[in-house]
Specification:
Elements: E1 8-23, E2 29-45, E3 49-53, H1 60-67, E4 75-80, E5 83-84, H2 90-97, E6 100-103, H3 117-127, H4 134-147, H5 164-177, E7 182-186, H6 194-211, E8 214-219, H7 222-228, E9 231-236, E10 239-245, H8 246-251, H9 256-263, H10 270-276, H11 307-311, E11 317-320, E12 323-325, H12 339-350
Parallel strand pairs: 3-8, 3-9, 6-7, 7-8
Antiparallel strand pairs: 1-2, 1-4, 4-5, 9-10, 10-12, 11-12
Helix pairs in contact: 3-4, 3-5, 4-5, 5-6
The protein binds iron/sulfur cluster.
């Protein structure tokens, strides 16, 4: 991890990814719109790891795909190192994609079962013409295999001949082959056994340092995110609700949704668990993005919801240096209810 780099590599402004739903006899009638990502803005500094967390269906994976234009954004601007990715034609986009790669959640589904590992890892070399001759191609693949902790002799094998953890290493080697600056890691360890997760996280940290990589790290597991991320952004129903440094988020989560996510993290020590002193666990399911709640999207599940929350969408505002929260409790202009009063009242009731 590195926090010394202040220059921005990835700048995302007001990104929206909406999917139109069609119905009717010939599917010509638009029956609704799913607002999977609805106005998300953030920056990732060169060399840092920004975590993107939230429950399934909150839009975090779609945000990653929208940044890479693997799904076409409905609106907004994505800039990588000064290049407006959203304005590129397909040839220029293909070229720019070399600089931003993706590591997927399902290491088996992401690898073509009919291809040898040599060809899977080498594919980006072919696409971007990054080798001199056949010997150089093989040497680069062998080197990448070694770099991710696999034996170069395995290059002629097929994906099914590897374990889940090894397959994820192959996926990482494939992403590295293009010599990217940004890697979007979409739940890269959630499909792996807990014992293997730490090894893959350590590998991601090692190669980040060695290759000066920047990560957008998508996960639902807050324990994993805590280990690897410098800053963390919390999403709910297509919106950013909180973003701050890793330690600030864990020591002082401010948004009621973040607090609920935190309270769901098990603490193995019963004494420590008792010290937590409150239960802010989440009630109910994430509402459908097809029919999102009015006002604050979290209000049907929020224990602090008040009248303004049902009609007014909270703005993302800075509450401490570098700590942004979208909640009326922190916005004197939107609510006469004070965050401290409500939280204290809640603690008394919970205690
Ligand atoms: Fe809860 Fe209202 Fe804050 Fe939304 S704006 S998180 S409903 S208190």
């Amino acid at each position: 991890m590195s926090t010394n780099h202040n220059d921005v590599l990835l700048d995302v402004q007001d990104l929206k990814v909406h999917f139109k739903l069609h119905g009717g006899l010939f599917g010509q009638k638009q029956t609704g719109t799913v607002k999977a990502v609805d106005g998300v803005s953030f920056q990732v500094r060169r060399g840092e790891t920004l975590g993107l967390v939230g429950e399934s269906g909150c839009g975090k994976s779609t945000t990653g795909l929208g940044v890479l234009r693997m799904v076409e954004p409905t609106a907004g601007k994505v800039t990588l190192d000064g290049i407006d990715i959203t304005a590129l034609n397909s040839a220029a986009l293909r070229k720019a994609r070399r600089r931003m790669q993706m590591v997927y959640q399902d290491p088996f589904g992401a690898l073509d079962p009919r291809m040898r590992v040599l060809d899977i890892i080498g594919e980006p070399l072919l696409i971007h013409k990054m080798f001199k001759d056949k010997k150089d191609y093989k040497a680069q693949v062998h080197d990448l295999l070694e770099r991710v902790g696999l034996n170069p002799n395995m290059a002629d094998r097929y994906p099914h001949q590897f374990s889940g953890g090894q397959r994820q290493r192959i996926g990482i080697a494939r992403a590295l082959a293009a010599r990217p600056e940004l890697i979007i890691c979409d739940e890269p360890v959630s499909a792996l056994d807990v014992s293997i997760q730490a090894q893959v996280i350590n590998l991601l940290e090692d190669i980040q340092e060695e290759f000066g990589l920047t990560y957008l790290f998508i996960a639902h597991d807050l324990a994993v995110v805590r280990h690897i991320c410098d800053r963390i952004m919390v999403m709910y129903l297509g919106h950013v609700v909180e973003v701050t440094d890793r330690d600030a988020l864990y020591e002082n989560p401010q948004h009621p949704y973040t607090q609920a996510l935190m309270s769901a993290i098990p603490i193995p020590d019963p004494e420590e668990e008792a010290k937590r002193g409150f239960d802010r666990s989440l009630q109910g399911e994430v509402p459908s993005p097809l029919n999102p709640p009015s006002g604050c999207p979290f209000h049907p599940r929020c224990r602090f919801a008040h009248d303004a929350c049902k009609t007014q969408k909270p703005r993302l505002m800075e509450t401490d240096t570098g700590h942004q929260v979208a909640c009326h409790l922190y916005d004197p202009a939107a609510s006469d209810i004070n965050a401290g009063d409500v939280m204290e009242d809640n603690l008394v009731r919970a205690g």
